[in-house]
Specification:
binds zinc ion; alpha/beta; 18 helices; TIM Barrel; binds 3-methyl-2-oxobutanoic acid; 18 strands; 8-stranded parallel barrel; single chain; Double Stranded RNA Binding Domain; about 500 residues
C-alpha cells in the first residue's frame, strides 16, 4: 500500500482562522499531541509573521521530536532566512515557500508577469535549498491557475531543488473530478515529477475540502495537508480526522495507508478545541459529540443486535472507548488512571495525582463523574499557565430587582492580596469589572461562552473567554459546578496568560 504523508497545518493555516489564535505554550501542547497522533509533518507557523510566531516555530522545532517541522515563508529571501532561523534546530526541518500562480493573484496581488513569477519561484527555491535539504514549494491558487503555466513552474522548481510540490485549492473552488484531473495532468505533464512528492492542500469554501483531498490521493498525490477539526482560513481546511478515518475505513477503495495512530484523534480534537476556544459542531464527522450517538429507537435496536448495522467505524478507533464503568466517589486511583489512558491522555504521575484530587472533589459534588467531566479537567490542566493572580474568594449579590454587585478577592503570586467591589449588568459582568479594578489594565472582553459539560442539574459549567489587551488576544477557560465561578476562573486564566506573556506583573495593584 502507498503511504500518504500527513502534513498538519493546524498551527499555521488553522491558527490563521478568526478566533483560533494560540499562545506559545498552547502551540507546544498541540504540537506534542500531533506527534503522538503520528503526523509526518507539523507546519508550526509562519516565522516572519511576528516575533511571537517566530518564537513558537522555534520552540516547536527545538522541543518536538518525530515529525518534520516546517515553517511557511513567502518566496522572498528575508522570509526564507527567517523561516530557516526558526526551524534549523529541528530534528528534520523543512522550509515551505509559496508564490501564487493564478492570473488573478499574479496580476492584482503580486503585480508580476508570469515569467517574473517563474523566475522568482526558481530563485527562492534555490535559495531555500542552499539552507535546507527539505524544501516544499506551493503554487498558491493552483486550482485556478493555467495548467500549462502551472506545470512549467512545477518542473522548474523541482529542477531548482524542491522536494515537495504543493497544489493548493486556496479558495476552495475545485470539485473532486476536476481536482483529481489536475493532479493526473501534473503527474503526466511534468517530466521530472518523480523527483518530488505531490502534495494537496484544500480549503472548504464549498464543503469539498476532504472530498477533493481524497480524490487527489486517488489520482496519485503523496502528501495531504490538513488541520485538526478542519479549522483554518474562512470555511477551514480539510479535516485531518475525516481524511484519516476515510482512508482507514475504506482502505480497499483507496489502497493507501498513513502512519497515524487514529486512537489519538479524539484527544487531539478536544485539545485543539480547548486551546482555541472554538467548539466542534455536534454533527461534525468523526469528532462531533453526536458522531457515534444513536438516538432513533430503530437504530439503537440495530446496533444492539450487531454494531455493523449502523456503525462504519468504532468509537474506540478514534480513542473514544465505550461501555465504560461509571466513575464516582468510591472509584480508586487505578480505575481513574485507566480511564485517562482509555481517553487517550498521556499525563505524568504528578499531573495524574493532581487530576485525581480534582476528580475526588468533583465526585463529592456530583453523583457520577462522566468522561466529559474528566476530559474537561485534563483540558484545564493542559491549558493552565503559571498563576500570576489566584482567585481567593468572591461574593455576589444579584436578583431581578437589584443591581448585581460582586466582591472579588485575588492573591498575587508574590503573596499580596487585593479585594475590589464592582456593580455590573449581572453577576458575571460585575465580577469581571471587580477583577479589572484589581488588575488595573484596560481589558476588552471579545468573546464569552458558557456551556454545561454534561447533562443534569449538577453539571459542571465550562466557561471560555477571549480577551484583548494592547492589540493581542488571549484565551482562558474555567470549570466549576458554579457557573459564576467558572466564568471568573476563565477570565482570570486569560489574564494570567496575558500577564505571563507580558512578564510585566509587579503586583503594583495589591492592597496587602
Ligand atoms: O491555501 C493556501 O494556498 C495556503 C498556501 C500558503 C499553502 O495556505
Ligand atoms: Zn491554506
Amino acid at each position: 500500500m502507498r503511504r500518504i504523508t500527513i502534513f498538519d497545518t493546524t498551527l499555521r493555516d488553522g491558527e490563521q482562522a478568526p478566533g483560533c489564535s494560540m499562545n506559545l505554550a498552547e502551540k507546544l501542547d498541540v504540537a506534542r499531541q500531533l506527534a503522538r497522533l503520528g503526523v509526518d509533518v507539523i507546519e508550526a507557523g509562519f516565522a516572519i509573521a511576528s516575533p511571537g510566531d517566530f518564537a513558537s516555530v522555534r520552540e516547536v522545532a527545538r522541543n518536538v521530536r518525530g515529525p518534520i517541522i516546517a515553517s511557511l515563508s513567502r518566496a522572498l529571501e528575508k522570509d526564507i532566512d527567517t523561516a530557516w532561523e526558526a526551524i534549523r534546530e529541528a530534528e528534520r526541518p523543512r522550509i515551505h515557500t509559496f508564490l501564487a500562480t493564478s492570473p488573478v493573484h499574479m496580476e492584482f496581488k503580486l503585480k508580476m508577469k508570469p515569467d517574473e513569477v517563474l523566475a522568482q519561484a526558481v530563485a527562492m527555491v534555490r535559495h531555500a535549498r542552499n539552507l535546507c535539504g527539505d524544501v516544499e514549494f506551493s503554487a498558491e491558487d493552483a486550482s485556478r491557475s493555467d495548467p500549462v503555466f502551472l506545470c512549467r513552474v512545477i518542473e522548474a522548481v523541482i529542477e531548482a531543488g524542491a522536494t515537495t510540490i504543493n497544489v493548493p485549492d486556496t479558495v476552495g473552488y475545485a470539485i473532486p473530478d476536476e481536482y483529481a484531473g489536475l493532479i493526473r495532468r501534473i503527474r503526466e505533464g511534468v517530466p521530472n515529477i518523480a523527483k518530488a512528492v505531490i502534495s494537496v492542500h484544500c480549503h472548504n469554501d464549498l464543503g469539498l475540502a476532504v472530498a477533493n483531498s481524497l480524490a487527489a490521493i486517488g489520482a496519485g498525490a503523496g502528501q495531504v495537508e490538513c488541520t485538526v477539526n478542519g479549522i483554518g482560513e474562512r470555511a477551514g481546511n480539510a479535516a485531518l480526522e475525516e481524511i484519516a478515518m476515510a482512508i482507514r475505513t475504506r482502505a480497499e477503495q483507496f489502497g493507501v495507508t498513513t502512519g497515524l495512530d487514529t486512537t489519538q484523534i479524539h484527544a487531539a480534537s478536544i485539545l485543539v478545541s480547548s486551546v482555541t476556544g472554538v467548539r466542534v459542531q455536534p454533527n461534525k464527522a468523526v469528532v462531533g459529540e453526536n458522531a457515534f450517538a444513536h438516538e432513533a429507537g430503530i437504530h439503537q435496536h440495530g446496533v444492539l443486535a450487531n454494531r455493523a448495522t449502523y456503525e462504519i467505524m468504532t468509537p474506540e478507533s478514534i480513542g473514544l472507548p465505550r461501555n465504560r464503568m461509571v466513575l464516582g466517589k468510591h472509584s480508586g486511583r487505578h480505575a481513574f488512571d485507566d480511564r485517562l489512558v482509555e481517553l487517550g491522555f498521556r499525563v505524568d504521575a504528578a499531573s495524574a495525582t493532581r487530576l485525581f484530587a480534582e476528580f475526588k472533589d468533583l465526585a463529592d459534588k456530583k453523583k457520577t463523574v462522566s468522561d466529559a467531566d474528566i476530559e474537561a479537567m485534563v483540558r484545564g490542566m493542559q491549558t493552565q499557565v503559571p498563576e500570576v493572580y489566584r482567585l481567593e474568594r468572591f461574593t455576589i449579590n444579584s436578583g431581578s430587582s437589584i443591581t448585581a454587585t460582586s466582591t472579588v478577592r485575588l492573591v498575587h503570586r508574590d503573596g499580596g492580596e487585593s479585594e475590589r467591589v464592582a456593580v455590573g449588568d449581572g453577576p458575571i459582568d460585575a465580577s469581571f469589572k471587580a477583577i479589572d479594578k484589581i488588575v488595573g489594565k484596560k481589558i476588552v472582553l471579545e468573546n464569552f461562552d458558557l456551556s454545561a459539560v454534561t447533562g443534569g442539574k449538577d453539571a459542571q459549567g465550562e466557561a471560555r473567554v477571549r480577551i484583548e489587551h494592547g492589540g493581542r488576544r488571549y484565551n482562558g477557560r474555567g470549570l466549576s459546578t458554579d457557573i459564576v465561578e467558572a466564568s471568573l476562573r476563565a477570565y482570570l486564566s486569560a489574564i494570567n496568560v496575558l500577564e505571563n506573556e507580558e512578564g510585566s506583573s509587579d503586583g503594583s495593584h495589591r492592597d496587602s
